[in-house]
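Researcher: Next sequence.
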Amino acid sequence: SLWRISQGEADVILVPASEDLSDYMKTLGQRAKDVEDRRVRPDEDNMLKIGSDGRKAALDLRLLDATNGYQPGCKIDAAVDELHKVWLATRDNSYADPITGEASTHRGALQIVFCDLSTPNSDRWDAYNEIRDQLVARGMDRGRIRFIHEAKNDAEKARMFEACRTGGVDIIIGSTEKMGTGTNIQARAIHLMNLDAPWRPADVEQRIGRAIRQGNQNPEVAISHVVTEGSFDTFMWQTLSRKQRFIEQVMTGRGTGRSVEGDIEGGTLPTNYNEIMAASSGNPLIFELATAQQELTRLTRLERAHAESQRSLGRRRSYAEAGVADARATIPRL
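Model: Next structure:
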């Protein structure tokens, strides 16, 4: 499951949903139904809040309530397993100094983890510290597992990036916003992990571009997406895939239609009950049904618009024909 710089595909690490998560997803479906049927006020609950809670639950239920406790086999456990495995396999890799080109005395590759949710917080549980604590418990050096949020200014960020390039960091964890454009850490990058789904296809490309870019000394880079089955992860990644298809259609000019449906810059959170139910069910067929229903709604609107256009053209034709008759009657008199 290696992503070659020239070609390849990402590895999807599927994590089964826990019983508690499955139960919580059902409550999200009921909340969405209540919002759809207007049984709650918008300030009490809405699709945005439901979608946000769904994304948090897909990462870890402790984000919603710290008393939920640890769920064995959760997404973070799967991520830690993969990160530790790659570290064991690459900690003795040799690299050249990115400035001088001479062999570096520091060994070891770099792993990059993207997570936009649950950033470091000293007042509550967060995914960043949980990952680091678990990795340290397995024998990794705490000081070589860094968070981008530790850099408070450009100077500190530059020093952190230099450490990533020269072998001083084993794993760096950050968000799309803080570790996007200008993050020059690719020299030793051997593995990039997406712990959650960003908002736009461009964000995915931005993330992957931190590793797959000029200056990386590794001939191959592993890209992995950690996805919780039967959760909002499925909805987010499927929506990103759908957006990417129509963006590519526009950019390459391969589309045969006169219009392209989609939201390029907006968020990917579900906006109606059917989408919530598709995300909460974990059944891809229900998601396909929701997509088909959306398409039916769009085509129905187009059909009505076409019929109204035909009626309008019919009226204009009648007026024009009457005008022609009046003009022909007027010509002899003129």
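Model: The longest helix spans residues 284-333. The beta strands are 3-4, 11-15, 110-114, 145-147, 171-174, 189-194, 220-228.
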